Amino acid sequence: MISVDEALSHLFSLVAPLEAESAPLQDACGRVLAETVTARRDQPPFSASAMDGYAVQSSDAVPGARLSVIGEAAAGHGFAGGLSQGQAVRIFTGAPVPDGADRVVIQEDVAREGNTITLGDQLDEGPHIRRKGTDFSVGDAMKAPRRLTPSDVALLAAMNIPRVMVARKPVVALISTGDELVMPGEDPGPDQIIASNTFGLKAMLEEMGATARLLPIARDNTASLETAFDLAEGADLVVTIGGASVGDHDMVGDVAASLGMERSFYKVRMRPGKPLMAGRMGQAAMVGLPGNPVSAMVCGHVFLAPMIRLMLGLGEAPAPRRSARLAQDIDKGGPREHYMRATVADGTILAEDRQDSSLLSVLARANALMIRPPDDAPRAKGETIEYIPI
Amino acid sequence: MISVDEALSHLFSLVAPLEAESAPLQDACGRVLAETVTARRDQPPFSASAMDGYAVQSSDAVPGARLSVIGEAAAGHGFAGGLSQGQAVRIFTGAPVPDGADRVVIQEDVAREGNTITLGDQLDEGPHIRRKGTDFSVGDAMKAPRRLTPSDVALLAAMNIPRVMVARKPVVALISTGDELVMPGEDPGPDQIIASNTFGLKAMLEEMGATARLLPIARDNTASLETAFDLAEGADLVVTIGGASVGDHDMVGDVAASLGMERSFYKVRMRPGKPLMAGRMGQAAMVGLPGNPVSAMVCGHVFLAPMIRLMLGLGEAPAPRRSARLAQDIDKGGPREHYMRATVADGTILAEDRQDSSLLSVLARANALMIRPPDDAPRAKGETIEYIPI
């Protein structure tokens, strides 16, 4: 058996960062920036008023000063001329500060009569001017790779970047295998169950930034499996679910091998989800996940998510972990790394009582996979432990 | 001035939960379940083997026992008959356990010759059977409202639920206002800047589960604003950005009022983002946000996100908060609730040095809004403080 990290290294060797494509800014949130972007302008592009008031020379900004209003500067409509001592320009937030002015007196501190203003008794410190380039300057960079957030999108807009190069979305084909499966909404026979893994994995992969294709269920015979692999044509990653253990009826590996896959089979020292098949199949990577519903979903978080991130250009790294304090004492762990369904609230983590890998109801109410390393010692309530948020 | 909570109460009174619509399960992740769903079957629907091995009677599961193999049960293909003492049925993971059997002996513990098996010297405790209904039973509920996760989608599939009723996505129309604005990719004049807020807010709203419509920029004149409001027809929420402060050139409120909006204007005791306009306008709620880029984005997190959640049926609640330990001592706070751009890493929060509300570059590298209540006392490094993740 190999460790989770060793299995991940094998899986990383099967995929590579995908090419970049151009996306309009309004569709770029959540995508991964593939090429560093530099600002096409300064922000603000001119020194701008931060308040509504009057632009003046700072030497004139003294209590009781009387100044002559010579014009107006609004956002989008600057004052064309310059400003001398004794003069003021009515100014609004966002307007360019006129040449010669270096101070804005807020309108609450000003009394105006006709074209004359008188400053109040107590003036604030000012200057209420946002200097040209305070936010960013031409050439300032947003560095790739980076998964774009709403704030990033706002910043890119301000930089005058209407389109960005982002990593193409990985296409993942999902194949459930097994004579026992029917699709949701169908009428299962007495020995059958509903295919659930592909639906859960599709949702998970799309949250990660992939495009998932749900293929028809493959039956436990060569022709049906071959058809499924044919339908997966064009995918970057083909994921089969079920048929990856060692029973006489698990034929996914044989069929994949007959179609040219250089097949590796790993027993990974983990719970749940021990058996894992992987290889290259033509242009695609192929991963065979175990068929137990919870095992498949846990392997999605532990193995597929890092592969997707690598394809998106985010590098080789295991699933991001956080830590929380144990809500209870726990016994020593077993020989396999255990990803326990658990609930994190207010920085405290509580493992579910029932950890059987068939229990989707337990997985659905969990929000974390608490990680116990192999042969973990007993731990006391209050100790911190790592988990993967799910 | 009113508090953030008072402002939120006003905003909540402008919107209501939206109607439900049917969505296929494969498109339901991230949507909010609007009607409680009950399982249409037991899971497993029959007692099923958890391993590959042999189904036997537990009284026969003793070291060295010799049993006669009378048939085979595979996933999807159960064994039709019953099983008596002295008999075994070859069984695979997921197959129905034959009548009469109550134990599976794993294949590693069995030696087979023809149709006779001999059990090994050391047997595990078993029984390696997943009892009917262990995961869930007919009628077990997934309760609405609930934002569906990938695990929920897997569970719903297993319950044989092909479609679910989810809250309709709120439609939000976004209107930037101001003569100073041009769209990204255009060639701004010397007094102009690029519209960034609508792009950032669109991305934020869509992450929250809304559909956002980016309308053309409205200019600072009545006709242009009226056109923009016309184009917002059909939206559940109309959001204007800019024109919500008190300068002579802020005419959004006047035009909205002339179009029938019952206008309320609030000064909210918060930084950034003090001025806020709100009201009902025909079938839609209308909110006017301040024009400073960071103010608009912060108001999006603090005000728009809770409104969206209410429309999605998730109830009235402010933006969810977490807590972290302060990375540094901080001085006493000001009279307004301050949403400081900050970075959280490893449970520790560090506020950015520059908090000016024009700095999108600072917002983009932050991942949290650290919340200082009004008139907050000084705080020491290591104390916990609340924040909104962004």
UniProtKB/TrEMBL annotation, chains A, B:
Give an example GO biological process.
Mo-molybdopterin cofactor biosynthetic process
Pathway it works in:
Cofactor biosynthesis; molybdopterin biosynthesis
The UniProt record lists the MoaB/Mog domain at: 173-310
Q: What class of enzyme is it?
A: transferase
Which Enzyme Commission numbers does its entry carry?
A: 2.10.1.1
Question: What keywords tag this UniProt record?
Answer: Magnesium, Metal-binding, Molybdenum, Molybdenum cofactor biosynthesis, Transferase
Any keyword Transferase? yes
Q: Where are the transmembrane segments?
A: none
Known Pfam families for this protein? MoCF_biosynth, MoeA_C, MoeA_N
- Which cofactors, by name? Mg(2+)
Instruction: Indicate whether Transferase appears among the record's keywords.
Output: yes
The record's catalysed reaction(s) read: adenylyl-molybdopterin + molybdate = Mo-molybdopterin + AMP + H(+)
Single Gene Ontology MF annotation: molybdopterin molybdotransferase activity
Cross-referenced Gene3D superfamilies? MoaB/Mog-like domain (3.40.980.10), MoeA, C-terminal, domain IV (2.40.340.10), Molybdopterin biosynthesis moea protein, domain 2 (3.90.105.10), Molybdopterin biosynthesis moea protein, domain 3 (2.170.190.11)
A Gene Ontology term for the protein's cellular component = cytosol
Function (record text): Catalyzes the insertion of molybdate into adenylated molybdopterin with the concomitant release of AMP.
NCBIfam families assigned: Glp_gephyrin
Q: Which family does it belong to?
A: Belongs to the MoeA family.
State what protein this is by name.
Molybdopterin molybdenumtransferase
Annotated source species: Roseovarius indicus
Classification from the root reads: Bacteria, Pseudomonadati, Pseudomonadota, Alphaproteobacteria, Rhodobacterales
